[in-house]
Specification:
By secondary structure, the protein is of the alpha+beta class. It is built from 25 helices and 21 strands. It is 50% helix and 15% strand.
């Protein structure tokens, strides 16, 4: 199935590139520069500032990856089950498996606080390009300019945080041609209210993933609190249970993670020839390690469920994206487009002087990136997220001594509260699982880098990967957040005196990690950053500024229409229904992953089989948009993004309105199952009050 998906994506990629024209519904637009005229021309709808403000302030970013929206006056936030999955996993126990069995808090007292979830709402944004460019312009070397940019960014973020009390992030847009300061209201008291069983949220499992027709109830609800009281958002999305209908104009407001649509040809070559093959290899290996661990017993399988889900999802996405870069004709079209831009620059003496060398500079940086990539990828503690906490603590206490602008990325003053929130998380740690993952990752590093690599020598210290992992995980006390806090509070003296094996190995590899970071900055980032800025500025010069930037996990608006599409010699409908869900289960004799949960099977007679379940639209999305609201012209919630179809996997590089589709849960389906299947009428009424 993976090979089939790869070939299909390559064909779609080539067919699109042959047109050479952007599609009408294309774009993940920043809220400060929405495509108002294009929407008016195509759909006859006038986007107002009031409409945009309401949607922006109702939209929510899940800092651990994903999107959501406020959907009630009492602070309910709607997102995907698979976005909430990590928190459900952390809250589950052998006795209460919220992933497999679902969860519903019938009262406020029953709501369960997430262990370490941060939500962000974008309050304001500000162009700070001139300030950062001025700081970089005073430097005399590429490394000096990079250091100056980083220091100025840290200063801007710190000033903003102190002045406003808001989370403040400087974001790079248009390949670095612009820098924007985004300010967020941050919430860390988030409580789980409802989640269906994972089987119904992910019905069809990996075979149906990234396909359509779909029959998934991929939703979850959390409630946001502030100072112990549920928030009363001024802006939340009113529910429209009628949902979206065919050919209706709809909008998606969410946080797409990253795209590479403006990458240079040489950067795409690196992605194709170096990055994807290694990433796919790593993910396949880690899935196999998790499956071996799961085979030990039911509890081990429960512990590994969330990771397996995430990695299988990543593998299918990587395979499709990789397929889009493998067709040489497709890559030639990208090369042709780049030549056209360079030729336009070359015909203008001023542009040529300002931007003409940028592509060669990027090529020089990419050559270094390829040379360093393997050592960077495998020369770090991987597999076990827990294993790196010792290094994080070592670096935390060391970085705090430095001026803010000179610290490693991630340790600046404006970032510390979020870092500590994550670092001191009380989420459970499963030592046997962490040991298995670390052992496999260390074995892979040994195989890829060899026994004489400095990182391998420092971590293994003459031991086998299995024995090293057992000693590091088995001997540490860092699973206890109180121990982590004690070390952080004790500063460098406490960390220097610690004999905890994860702290010891953190001290041993700290210098290596810093050297790797310095090499990457010296040979790649300091060269590529100003070059990419020039290419972004060249695009502005040649094509104007009416374009959208690549995705950056910041709030974006996309527009499109609800529409089916041609597929496999037939037509994919714009929607599915509950009748289709039961039919698909019956067609596979109810065997996993097409089985219905007992609760769902028992409720069959109460379900209206004609109720829409999932639907597709031409909205331009990518990973990170999971959990994004789908809204109509009135700004009402009509659906919930949870996936794209297989043809959309090339969306990292290019968009095709003919076949790219976003996949959403229908708003009517959510309130229908709450009332008929889950005995959650009160919750349904909070979302969709009786009229």
């Amino acid at each position: 199935m993976m090979r089939t998906a790869s070939r299909l994506v390559a064909v779609v990629f080539l067919a699109l590139l042959a047109t050479g024209r952007p599609s009408a519904d294309e774009g993940m637009w920043t809220f400060d520069r929405p495509p108002i005229e294009a929407i008016q021309r195509r759909y006859g709808f006038s986007v107002t500032n009031e409409w945009l403000t309401h949607l922006r302030l109702a939209s929510v970013r899940f800092e651990d990856g994903g999107s959501g929206s406020f959907v009630s006056a009492d602070g309910l936030v709607l997102t995907n089950h698979h976005v909430a999955l990590g928190q459900l996993q952390k809250l589950s126990t052998p006795q209460r498996n919220y992933v497999a069995d679902g969860f519903y808090a019938r009262t406020r007292e029953d709501e369960i606080r997430a262990t370490d979830l941060e939500l962000n709402v974008l309050i304001s944004s500000e162009d700070v390009t001139a300030r950062i460019a001025s700081a970089a312009g005073r430097a005399t070397t590429a490394q000096g300019a990079l250091n100056a940019r980083k220091a100025e960014i840290a200063s801007i973020e710190k000033e903003s945080t102190e002045q406003t009390g808001l989370r403040s992030d400087v974001v790079t847009l248009y390949q670095g041609a612009q820098y924007w300061l985004y300010r967020y209201k941050k919430y860390t008291d988030v409580r789980i209210v409802f989640a269906p069983e994972q089987q119904m949220a992910f019905f069809g499992g990996d075979p149906d993933n990234f396909t359509f027709p779909r029959h998934d109830l991929d939703f979850a609800l959390v409630r946001v609190y502030d100072n112990g009281v549920s928030v009363r958002p001024e802006h939340f999305l009113k529910w429209n249970a009628k949902g979206a209908v065919e050919n209706e104009l709809v909008f998606v407001s969410g946080h797409p993670g990253s795209t590479d649509r403006t990458d240079t040809f040489v950067e795409l070559e690196t992605t194709r020839d170096v990055v994807y093959p290694i990433n796919i290899q790593v993910v396949k290996r880690r899935i196999e390690a998790l499956r071996q661990y799961s085979a030990r017993g039911a509890e081990q399988a429960r512990q590994a469920t969330g990771l397996i889900f995430s990695l299988e999802n990543a593998l299918k996405a990587y395979t499709g994206e990789y397929g889009g870069l493998l067709d040489p004709r497709a890559m030639e079209k990208k090369a042709s487009d780049e030549r056209a831009l360079r030729d336009a620059v070359g015909r203008n003496t001023e542009w040529q002087r300002a931007y003409g060398t940028a592509w060669d500079e990027v090529a020089r940086a990419e050559a270094a990136r390829r040379r360093l990539f393997k050592a960077q990828r495998f020369g770090q503690l991987r597999g076990s997220a827990f294993a790196s906490r010792g290094l994080l603590i070592v670096q935390y206490v060391a970085e705090l001594r430095k001026p803010d602008g000179q610290r490693l990325d991630g340790f600046h003053d404006a970032q510390l509260s979020s870092l500590l929130f994550s670092l001191l998380s009380p989420a459970p740690v499963y030592p046997a699982l962490e040991e298995a993952l670390l052992a496999d990752a260390l074995q892979e590093s040994l195989e890829e880098l060899g026994p004489n690599d400095p990182f391998v020598r420092a971590v293994l210290s003459g031991r086998s990967p299995k024995d090293a992992a057992a000693a590091l995980i088995g001997g540490t006390k860092l699973a206890d957040p109180a121990v982590r806090k004690q070390l952080i509070d004790g500063g460098e003296a406490a960390v220097r005196a610690s004999t905890d094996p994860l702290i010891v190995v953190g001290r041993a590899i700290d210098a290596l990690m810093r050297a790797n970071t310095a090499a990457l900055e010296r040979e790649v980032t300091s060269v590529a950053t100003p070059a990419r800025e020039k290419i972004g500025q060249a695009r502005f010069a040649v094509f104007g500024t009416t374009a959208y930037p690549d995705a950056t996990f910041t709030l974006r608006l996309s527009y499109g229409r609800v529409s089916g599409y041609p597929m496999n010699g037939t037509l994919a409908p714009y929607k599915t229904t509950f009748a289709g869900l039961f039919d698909r289960s019956a067609s596979f004799d109810g065997k996993p992953p097409f089985n219905l949960t007992p609760r769902f099977a028992e409720a069959r007679s109460r379900i209206d089989m004609t109720t829409p379940l999932d639907f597709v639209s031409t909205n331009d999305i990518i990973g990170g948009n999971s959990g994004s609201p789908v809204v109509n012209r009135a700004g009402e919630l009509v659906g919930l993004i949870f996936d794209g179809n297989i043809e959309s996997l090339v969306g990292r590089f290019v968009y095709d309105e003919g076949k790219n589709r976003s996949v959403a849960v229908h708003a009517g389906a959510i309130v229908h199952v709450l009332r008929t299947v889950y005995d959650a009428g009160a919750l349904a009424d909070e979302l969709d009050p009786p009229r």
